[in-house]
Amino acid sequence: MLIDVFVYSDATESAPFGISSLIEAGKCARLDGIVITDRASSRRARDYFEAGKTAGFLVLHGVELNTTAGRVVAYPASLDDAYISEDWRCLGDSPAPEDVLEYFHDRGGIVIARDVYNRGEGLKDRVYSIRDSNGRGFDGVDTIAVYRRRIDNELSIEAQQVLGVPACAGSGVFDLLEDMGHCATLFAQPIDDQASFVDAMRAPLHWACALRDLGDACPMGSAPRPDDSDDRRYRDDRRGGRHDDRRDARGRGDRRDRPRRNDDRADRRDGHNSSSRRGPRRGNRPKS
Q: Where do the structural domains in the chain lie, given as residue ranges?
């Protein structure tokens, strides 16, 4: 399943989009679900889930908190009354990240390090040392995003690998619905509610994915994303049409630049030109 795990609704200050618009954008991006991660707000979480059920689209919830060290996103194990009433506000307006870990871990939830190296917002190198009182650190790291610099994404990937926790990704949709579908998280197991989502996020079999070309934000060594021609071929295949691959040959180098085949080299060793197998050239035909 492909789920965008970082999306903001109009419950976040200055974010303009209601849940209906976000659901429609998620469907258009061919996602299987989205997770609303409003900033310091969780009162609408249950309403969003029900709206998703009505629309036939998975909508889950998390809450983004600005801690004294940087931004984190907490995902509760269930959308219970305590979460809806925002009981987590007992942590204060700017809680210590250790306290956020403690609060949500004790209630079966998880906490993700968000925008770790995104200029002035992230945890940066503190991501390695932050623990709750039981020695539990972050349950995952937000690794790739189109709006971050390449080096920020690369450092986030390094942090995820050093910590040995799963990677996740989302579009961070805030004021542009077109951002939906740039990045998402691919899950190997089915997800149908908040509890199964948290279990899947805790498990190792999920991956941060770039679904579109990230341009300058793409980490070095990452596989290239499909270009427009590949998208066109995909659409043609879905319609049962036929795609002309000759159009995709442009930009891939001239055929004359490709290495010669082994049988051509063997012909030269024997004193023959490979064209002899196709008959003599027009200008060298024997006279009648």
A: 2-218, 226-272
pLDDT of residue 239: 41
- The model's pTM: 0.78
Q: Which of 96, 100, 94, 142 is nearest to 117 (CA)?
A: 142
d(Cα 162, Cα 288) in Å, to the nearest integer? Answer: 79
Instruction: Summarize pLDDT for 255-265 with one digit per residue, the tens.
Output: 334 444 444 44
A 10 A CB-CB count for 73 gives: 24
Specify the CATH class of 2-218 in words.
alpha beta
Low-confidence ranges of the chain (pLDDT < 50): 224-288
* Strand arrangement, sheet containing 167-169: 167-169, 140-144, 110-113, 71-75, 58-66, 33-39, 2-7, 183-187, 206-210
**DSSP string covering 38-70:** EET--TTHHHHHHHHHHHTSEEEEEEEEE-SS-
pLDDT at 274: 39
pLDDT digits (tens, 9 = 90+) for 202-224: 999 999 999 999 999 999 876 54
Task: Tell me the C-alpha distance between 148 and 210, whole Å.
Answer: 13
CA distance linking residue 8 with residue 21, whole number of Å: 11
